[in-house]
Q: What sequence folds into this?
């Protein structure tokens, strides 16, 4: 409900300011979302390599070394290309694009910082982050 109300406020503010909701609200938010997902996919590829680095668990090297590292490198190249051509995605000025891109490194740094804080202050809660109990829902 809060998300829907927030979205409504943003769309109404866009309309009241005389801006095009598609060109501003949709393209700007999706542009940063697309880049964020690409960054997460690149990190996931590196995590796969890191997980299997010491013990491949009998899996072939192409599957646990070559494929994730190739995917990570390819995504890194694409991330650079998206950042360099972000204006094509958002149809915004350079200043707006920089304002949209600048928070991403900070947001990505906040995640590990919060995780480390939870691990230090509430080890049990931290341990539950990676467990799933399908019986309890």
A:
């Amino acid at each position: 409900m809060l998300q829907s109300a927030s979205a409504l406020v943003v769309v109404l503010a866009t309309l009241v300011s005389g801006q095009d909701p598609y060109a501003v609200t949709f393209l700007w938010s999706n542009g940063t979302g697309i880049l964020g997902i690409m960054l997460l996919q690149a990190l996931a590829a590196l995590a796969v390599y890191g997980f299997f680095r010491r013990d491949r668990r009998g899996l072939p090297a192409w599957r646990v070394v070559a494929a994730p590292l190739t995917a990570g490198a390819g995504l890194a190249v694409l991330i650079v290309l998206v950042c360099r051509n972000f204006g094509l995605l958002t149809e915004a000025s350079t200043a707006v694009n920089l304002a949209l891109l600048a928070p991403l490194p900070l947001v990505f740094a906040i995640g590990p910082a919060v995780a480390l804080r939870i691990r230090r202050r509430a080890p049990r809660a931290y341990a539950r982050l990676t467990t799933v109990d399908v019986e309890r829902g």
Q: What stands out?
A: Residues 7 and 25 are 9 Å apart (CA to CA). The chain has a mean pLDDT of 90. The two ends are 22 Å apart (CA to CA). DSSP finds seven helices and no strands in the chain.
